[in-house]
Amino acid sequence: MSLNATLASVTRRIAERSRPYRTAYLARLEAARHEGVQRGALSCTNLAHGFAAFPANDKLKLKQDRAPSIAIVSSYNDMLSAHQPFERYPQIIRDAVREDGGVAQFAGGVPAMCDGITQGQTGMELSLFSRDAIAMGTAVALSHNMFDAALYLGVCDKIVPGLLIGALHFGHIPAVFVPAGPMTSGMTNSEKVKIRQLYTEGKIGRAELLEAESKSYHDAGTCTFYGTANSNQMLMEAMGLHLPGSAFITPNTPMRDALTAAAAKQALKITAQGQQYTPVGRLVDEKSIVNAIVALLATGGSTNHTLHLVAIAKAAGLVIDWDDFSKLSSVVPLVTRIYPNGTADVNHFHAAGGTGFVLRELIDAGLMHDDVMTILGQGLRAHATEPLFDDAGKVTWKATPKDSGDDTVLRPATNPFSADGGLKLLQGNLGRSVIKVSAVKHEHRAVQAPAIVFHSQEAFMKAFKAGELDKDFVAVLTFQGPRANGMPELHALTPALGILQDKGRHGWSPTGACRAHRAKCRRRST
């Protein structure tokens, strides 16, 4: 099918407005590229430092200056469930790379904080700023000029954007992103919401609440709701930076380990020494950025990416803005219902057809660019597949089934949940903002009520507990944006706001309220 006219127009405008910056960026990439292996530019002293602690056989390969060397950059820590699985990955990667004649080194670690732990705490104020620290940490890991490709191990909110921004500053080096996968499903989202509201009303105690939360967040892996962490994984698939269908395979399973090894082997294939040299700075272009925006809109992904994708694009010499998101949202259908836009989690989404189904539907509808560079070198349609084991126990890929496994969770583009992507650009006398209306119930999309201004979350909760908010109102929290204190998401207020709506009060929905606060503050950052 031919490309949608709006998609083609937005892509063309991005390319035109970005031309001077993109040209300069690509020139910098070409200047950074070396003939032969990257470490060929190092002095003997430099190189000796770089492999001093290596096993003898690996050291010999590096001395001979022929075998490609793969960097591992990881956000591993064992406090965060999403990143704990990465503890085992480096050895899997080293073994897989050695099998194919290369070497791999753990090049560096980056910080990883969890918005789920810091919600409602002052630590949340570091969240957005951590993205820049992660990008810097990535750059430090790659600064030694030892590596011919890199594997990036990351999952959550600011971590994947930070890793990709850092990778793009070394854009002459190929990149493969390696996910950890979601934890298995625990307590249902509807049960979890109900228990949180009961606690906020004082009807159950802390012990009961903690027991429920522990049943929700119960094992290694990513949280299973479709927030920024899992939106990151969707976007890496849509940009062709993951192996196909790898985003939502659960940790510590044979398929998860096999995909990690396969990712390492694919990184070897796309170095400058291979036949498919694929520098990440050329892979991430205006078409792949548009594909990422489309995937975000079509799946009701996190509005955090109206910040992150702008920064990622800029790191690649590309200029996008909220007008691009809004124009694309008008033509991109919503094809998924995943919590908080529905009751299902990402495991249900994956079982229903997952990322491969979404990519195929959007390509067939003319709403994604298939003619893009990916880590497979075959265009984006090659990523509209799902992994499985063949008779020999090796990973292979097959076409995603034509029909959804559950049309309450995943639908074709011809029969979507909504005709548009649900992300709207708001403009008025207060400035510009974005809001995700796909996460707001229809009865709450038009609200006229007095605004009540609070200067902290604590002030809001004090008024709620005092019974002062049992009425129609719009809550406004001041100074909660990226230029103020790092964009805290204010999910701690969600149960209280949900209780008020369940009583029939009109105002922002729990998600809508948090998004509105953030949207208002985003206006300050433009």
What do you see in this structure?
The longest helix is centred in the N-terminal third of the chain and has 28 residues, at 5-32. Helices cover 43% and strands 10% of the residues. The protein has two domains: 5-184 and 219-399, no CATH class; 440-525, IlvD/EDD C-terminal domain-like (Glucose Oxidase, domain 1, 3-Layer(bba) Sandwich). The strands form four sheets. The chain has a four-stranded parallel β-sheet with strand order 2-1-3-4, sandwiched between helices. With 526 residues, it is of the alpha/beta class.
Distinct helical segment count = 20
Helix share, percent: 40-55%
The residue ranges in which pLDDT falls below 50 over 5 or more consecutive positions are 509-526
Give the beta-strand count.
10
**How far do the termini sit from each other?**
36 Å
- Structural class, by secondary structure, is alpha/beta
Q: What is the radius of gyration computed over CA atoms, rounded to a whole number of angstroms?
A: 23 Å
Biggest sheet overview: 4 strands, parallel
Question: Please, how many domains?
Answer: 2
Global morphology: globular
Succession of helices and strands: HHHEHEHHEHEHHHHHHHHHHEEEEEHEHH
Mean pLDDT: 88
For the biggest β-sheet, the strand order reads 2-1-3-4
Give a quick precis of the structure.
The chain is 43% helix and 10% strand. The protein has 526 residues and is α/β, with parallel strands linked by helices. Mean pLDDT is 88; it is low at 509-526.
